[in-house]
Write a structure and sequence with these properties.
By secondary structure, this protein is α/β, with parallel strands linked by helices. It has one domain: Alpha-Beta Complex (2-enoyl-CoA Hydratase, Chain A, domain 1). Strand 1 and strand 2 form a beta hairpin. The longest helix is centred in the N-terminal third of the chain and has 12 residues. The protein is globular and about 45 Å long.
Length: about 200
Amino acid sequence: MIRSDRDGDVLTLTIDRADKANSLTADMLATLADHVEMVDDTTALLILTGAGDKVFSAGADLGEARAGLATSPLWERLSGAIAAIPCLSVAALNGTLAGGAFGMALACDIRLSVPGASFFYPVAKLGYLPQPSDPARLARLVGPARAKLILAAGARLSAQEALAFGLVDRVTDDPLAAARDLAVGQAAHVAAIKAMVP
């Protein structure tokens, strides 16, 4: 349910469970983390995307969330691995981003979204806390007040609102193609430039 495709120095990981809104199971999270942790200096660009044209990911699979996945350390393992890789990382958001799936998108360097996507992280409404590193990453992108609006008040954003907030970097009809267009530098140069940007 996680597809891995390599084209030269570009690695694309696709959440492929469109019939279930690309919701994530523990096995899928572990597989994603395994792939990201294996990224080496031959990779210039990592792209995360989802199957279908509606939802990037609805977060945790509901059945597994009730069984403990909502508070699993796997979410933090995945986002930490994404944040640590030397290559450029891009979330190509083919649709709505919700719940725990926020973590992997927040950990990416760049977020590209389709116009019809919406964004919400309803942890407070569901009785959970966000994953430990998500609030700080979100606040760095959108500011503390807007981070509280999203996390504590459960605000739902449109793609245009997310763009205006700074949560999304570009809105485009084909975020996967736009992400692939970013593969312009050699892996070593990309890593060096990324390391220069605080």
